[in-house]
Structures are given as C-alpha cells and as structure tokens.
Design goal:
Blueprint: E1 13-16, E2 19-24, E3 29-32, H1 35-51, E4 58-66, E5 69-78, E6 84-90, H2 99-112, E7 116-120, E8 125-131, E9 136-140
Parallel strand pairs: 6-7
Antiparallel strand pairs: 1-2, 2-3, 4-5, 5-6, 7-8, 8-9
Protein name: Type I restriction enzyme R protein N-terminal domain-containing protein
Organism: Fibrisoma limi BUZ 3
InterPro entries: HSDR_N (IPR029464)
C-alpha cells in the first residue's frame, strides 16, 4: 500500500484467497484492503490516537438515504448526545480531491448536518467547519479535537 501523509499505526493484514484484508478495529473484523480502505483505517486511527475521539462514537461505512438512494458515508463521528459531529470522506491516494468530492460530502452532510467535514485522500487533507444557519464554510488548519463536541 502507498505511504500516506498520516501517522503509521499498528495494523494487522492477512491474505484471504490471495487478496489482502485489514483488521478494522471499529467493526472488529477483517475487511477487504483497498487503497480507500487504507486511507480510512489511517484516518480513524489518527482521530482516536491524536484527537481523542472515543472509539464508541465513530462509525465507518454507515448508510444514509439521499434522494431515495442508499449511500455510504466513510466515517461519521458522533458527539456525546448522539448527533453527528464530524463527517469524513476518504478517497484513494491516486484520486484527486476535486470539487466533485466536496460536492459529495456536502450532499451527505445535507442529511447528517455535522458541524465539521474532512476530505482526504491520505496525502492531502481538508477540514472545514459548517455553519448550517448561515451556510458559511470556514476551512481550518487542523482537525477539531473531540473536546469541542462536549
């Protein structure tokens, strides 16, 4: 897998019928290792280890309905009241972070209404704060620490 612009973590990889699988600590099972999954696992571990997000409040591959279509969010972090706090859209390292990617997370956030959004391909990361009352978007220099959700 590609070297990412994210801290390394102690991951477990195994082969199943010649295909790589990585252990997902949140789902407590091995999942197929794709370039996007590699980024997702790194970002989840970063949020837990460096930004103090509790494992119990992070959900990966969560479903949502958007315009009568089932979609999947890469990562949703909830606050202590169970409301979406942070939404993360992960792309493979070779996928550029274009306007279409930002449009995608904005559509998903129309349902979730999280105050923070992250878009990453493992090499480049963008984080923004969304004011749902004014529709103002402010790009941040860093990811929010979990203490802000309390």
């Amino acid at each position: 897998m590609d070297t990412l612009n994210l801290p390394a973590f102690g991951h477990k990889i195994k082969q199943v019928e010649g295909k790589p699988y990585i252990f997902d600590e949140l789902r407590r099972k091995y999942v197929r290792l794709s370039p996007e999954e590699w980024v997702r696992q790194h970002i989840v571990h970063l949020l837990m280890s460096h930004y103090a997000y509790p494992k119990a409040l992070i959900r990966t591959e969560g479903g949502l309905t958007l315009n009568l279509t089932q979609k999947r969010t890469d990562v949703v972090v909830f606050d202590r009241e169970g409301k979406p706090f942070l939404l993360v859209e992960c792309k493979a390292p070779h996928v550029p972070l274009t306007q279409a990617v930002f449009d995608q997370i904005a559509r998903y956030n129309h349902v979730h209404r999280a105050p923070y959004l992250i878009v990453t391909n493992g090499l480049t990361h963008y984080c923004c704060c969304v004011d749902h009352d004014t529709a103002a978007i402010t790009f941040l220099d860093d990811f929010p620490v979990f203490d802000r959700a309390e």
